[in-house]
Automatic annotation (TrEMBL):
The lineage of its organism: Eukaryota, Metazoa, Ecdysozoa, Nematoda, Chromadorea. Residues 659-702 are annotated as: Disordered. Residues 687-698 have a biased composition (Low complexity). Keywords: Nucleus, Repeat, Repressor. One of its GO terms (cellular component) is nucleus. SUPFAM superfamilies: SAM/Pointed domain, Tudor/PWWP/MBT. It comes from Ascaris suum. This is Scm-like with four MBT domains protein 2. MBT repeats lie at residues 192-306. Gene3D superfamilies: 2.30.30.140, SLED domain (3.90.1150.190), Transcription Factor, Ets-1 (1.10.150.50). SMART domains: MBT, SAM. Residues 659-668 have a biased composition (Basic and acidic residues). Residues 719-785 form the SAM domain. Its main location: nucleus.
Length: 796
């Protein structure tokens, strides 16, 4: 066994824990913008362009797609692929006397032609702009150039700063004797003269206004700061919303707008306490850590109420009354959150920029993600720490190797005990104790048999110890965790991996949630393993990325503990104490089971009702669904003669049936009235006989009408005792007479007829789907008659 090297290297780190770097471009949109040519931002879709053709003529059209320096250009309904060097500046086109063919003028609307030729809606392209369009923004920014920077705490205060260093877009700027690090895609960075557009809202600090005129000679290009453009917000004081407090372990609180600073910025009070002191957060319309009301409930995330809220269940109406707010919840159209629909892969390595100094980076692993939010475990801490929440638009996440490429200081990851490579290939001397050659039964083996897979491959693990005194995470039940074994005996690595994961699933509060936390994507490029667990006659299974080498096992096992927010040293190959000091992790309030953001349905049986327009079905919301009382079927089913399900009732038949019923009711009422009148007269006996004859004839007519509606034929004897010929005669009375000959040919009697299923009717009797469904319905009706009248039925 050996310990990690002191110097940090991504390749060595990923060889120890069987992980790979994060490559999803959605995680690093600011880095992608810095690397791509500026033309993809300047030449947006629909922008009018003038292009120089090979024959020297000028053609005008609009941009469709830009990829690098190649542009798909549409003109008069035709799509052409051009290069960036063919684009003519708007100034040259305006001063040129060359006649420009614009294709079919009738194909262009008046509005589009005004935009194309007037130039009032689009910024004109100059020759300098086209030169910059072929370069990435990070190469355009030079040391010594100037731009405007908003203050971190007071965005209305503007400084004119100079670039001192450019490390891949991470700028070190100076304002007098003060130095600050900021990435150029931050919303606080602007071109020179940006604040002069509205001097009533912004003020320059110190001598920044005096530097403005002299700095214009060497200013950063305005096209560089087009990554993020703030829009005016529509928030008002008193509007309620949900806030993510990243400084407090990633806890979601209720909050409200406390002050509006400008049309672009406002303050949000994070309601950790209603009456006591509470922090305030500077926000704008696109701030990634503010959400509309009921966002947490829709995504099954815990919303932590204020400390002095009380023991009652949290309600927004009660919260508004206690805070004395006059406004309601902020409308959803006020928020401009990043739109991400898919989840990011877990345990992918990223580099995280320090949020305070912006001068050092830390190695991190993605734990989980939700929309644009990413939970990242920082690997440089020696103590066990909760994951930190970042947004993809925060500008703090970078791909692996960014710090080394641009000379940024990188903090090494913490060291832990691993298993080094084996020089001989036989780490535990198995070849001298076991053999892969099979011994005959009648001979006594000298060595124990072991498959050649485990003898020739380095896949045998030593004893794996379980430190039950460590913090097992908010998803694990401590009582169940104490019941798992204290150690796992030496054995093949796949078997031990399955045993450990199965025990973790079995000891969870909600095994299904553990399976979701550990599950990887189907299209993952890493090796995968399916793990199954059986708990109280219920099976659970999950798909986990696993390691393939013994040297990767210890680091991979730490990653599994990180996914569960547990102590990284919960499992180990050495029988020593915890080296991560997980007691500090256990004492954090947000890491307890009753307060963790991802354990909202672990103990709570119900959740506060969500308005109908906001309701969505999310994983784990089965506890919130109202209980439905199902009606029990009666024990004794009473058979009533009814039409069998052999064919659908048409509209004409239903109308005839209703008319017959009305006529029968009318006849009964007329007979009753006539009987009352004639009952007291001298001809009462003669009238009574006439009424009896009329009723008998009426019943005959009604029966005739009912026969036309195909009632189930009369069953006089037990169907189980019918012969094939008797069954044929009975079926001939229904509308399935064509099937009767088939049944008689196959020698199917009454008992066999009641045992037929839909599969038998289609495969063995050769019936099509329609007749087979009708025959199956007829069999069910006959089974009911046989059960209710004769007390027996066929057993399928």
């Amino acid at each position: 066994m050996e310990s990690n090297a002191v110097e940090f290297c991504w390749d060595a780190e990923m060889d120890r824990d069987a992980t790979i770097p994060a490559t999803d471009s959605l995680l690093f949109p600011h880095v992608e913008f810095a690397r791509r040519p500026l033309a993809e931002k300047m030449l947006y879709v629909g922008r009018p362009l003038t292009v120089l053709q090979e024959d020297g003529s000028l053609v005008s059209g609009k941009v469709e797609v830009v990829c690098g320096e190649n542009i798909f250009f549409s003109n008069a309904g035709k799509l052409e692929l051009i290069h960036l060097r063919q684009v003519v500046p708007d100034t040259e086109f305006a001063s040129s006397d060359v006649k420009v063919p614009f294709g079919n003028p009738s194909s262009l609307s008046d509005a589009s032609s005004d935009l194309m030729f007037g130039g009032c809606e689009h910024q004109k392209l100059e020759a300098k702009d086209l030169v910059e369009a072929s370069l990435p923004p990070v190469d355009i920014i030079k040391v010594g150039q100037w731009f405007e920077l908003q203050d971190v705490r007071n965005p209305c205060l503007i400084r004119v700063v100079q670039v001192v260093a450019n490390r891949g877009g991470l700028l070190t700027v100076s304002h007098g004797q003060r130095h600050e690090n900021v990435f150029f895609t931050n919303e606080r960075c602007h071109e020179l003269g940006w604040a002069q557009r509205d001097l009533q809202k912004y003020t320059y600090e110190g001598d920044s206004l005096n530097l403005l005129n002299s700095a214009r000679k060497n200013a950063v290009s305005s096209h560089v700061f087009t990554y993020s453009t703030l829009r005016e917000h529509k928030f008002e004081v008193g509007m309620m919303l949900e806030v993510l407090d990243i400084s407090n372990g990633g806890v979601f609180y209720a909050g409200y707008v406390s002050e509006v600073l400008s049309p672009y910025y406002f303050l949000v009070r994070v309601s950790q306490s209603i009456k006591g002191p509470a922090p305030e957060m500077l926000c704008h319309r696109s701030h990634p850590y503010i959400f509309p009301v009921y966002w947490c409930a829709r995504h099954n995330i815990r919303l932590t109420p204020p400390e002095d809220y009380g023991a009652d269940e949290f309600s927004w109406n009660t919260f508004r009354e206690k805070c004395g707010l006059t406004k309601g919840s902020a409308p959803e159209h006020c928020f401009d959150l990043p739109r991400v629909q898919r989840k990011f892969d877990k345990l992918r390595n990223v580099e995280v920029l320090d949020v305070r100094t912006h001068d050092v980076m830390y190695p991190g692993k993605i734990v989980r993600s939700l929309r644009h939010l990413v939970w990242v475990h920082l690997c440089h801490y020696a103590n066990a720490t909760p994951p930190t929440v970042y947004s993809i638009s925060s500008g703090l996440l970078f791909p692996c190797g960014f710090a080394k490429q641009h000379g940024i200081r990188m903090q090494p990851a913490t060291r832990y005990v691993t298993m080094g490579p084996s020089l001989s290939g036989d780490r535990f001397n198995l070849r001298t104790l076991c053999t892969s050659r099979q011994t005959p039964v009648f001979l006594t083996p000298k060595k124990r048999f072991l498959s050649s897979v485990w003898l020739n491959s380095d896949l045998w693990l030593p004893i794996v110890y379980v430190r039950k005194s460590c913090f097992a995470g908010p998803f694990i039940n401590p009582e169940r965790f104490r019941q798992i074994p204290n150690r796992y005996r030496p054995g093949p690595m796949p078997s031990i991996i399955r045993a450990i994961l199965s025990d973790l699933i079995s000891s969870a509060y909600k095994p299904k949630q553990i399976c979701e936390l550990l599950m990887c994507a189907k299209d993952s490029t890493l090796p995968q393993m399916v793990v199954k667990a059986r708990i109280k006659f219920k099976k659970h299974r999950t798909r986990v990325e696993c390691c393939e080498k013994v040297t990767e096992f210890c680091g991979w096992l730490r990653g599994i503990c990180i996914l569960l927010d547990a102590c990284p040293d919960l499992f180990g190959i050495n029988n020593t104490g915890c080296e991560s000091y997980c007691n500090t992790l256990r004492e954090i309030p947000s890491m307890s089971t009753t307060a963790h953001a991802w354990t909202v349905n672990t103990h709570a049986t119900t959740q506060k009702s969500i308005p109908r327009r906001m309701r969505r079905i999310v994983p784990g919301s089965s506890h919130n669904m109202p209980s439905v009382v199902r009606k029990k079927k009666p024990v004794i089913q009473i058979y009533e003669p009814r039409r069998p399900l052999t064919r659908a009732i048409t509209h004409k038949e239903w109308r005839a049936r209703s008319a017959a019923a009305e006529e029968r009711k009318r006849g009964d009422s007329s007979c009753a009235s006539s009987l009352d009148v004639l009952g007291s007269g001298p001809d009462a006996p003669r009238a009574q006989s006439a009424i009896d004859q009329a009723s008998s004839s009426q019943k005959t007519n009604v029966n005739g009408e009912e026969e036309g509606l195909m009632i189930l034929p009369l069953v006089e004897s037990n169907p189980l005792l019918w012969t094939a010929s008797e069954l044929r005669k009975w079926i001939m009375k229904t509308d399935l007479s064509s099937v009767a000959n088939v049944l008689e040919k196959e020698e199917i009697d009454g008992e066999a007829f009641l045992l037929l299923s839909l599969t038998h009717c289609m495969e063995n009797l050769g019936l099509k789907l329609g007749p087979a469904l009708k025959l199956n319905a007829l069999i069910k009706e006959l089974n009911n008659v046989c059960k209710e009248r004769f007390g027996v039925h066929a057993k399928h």
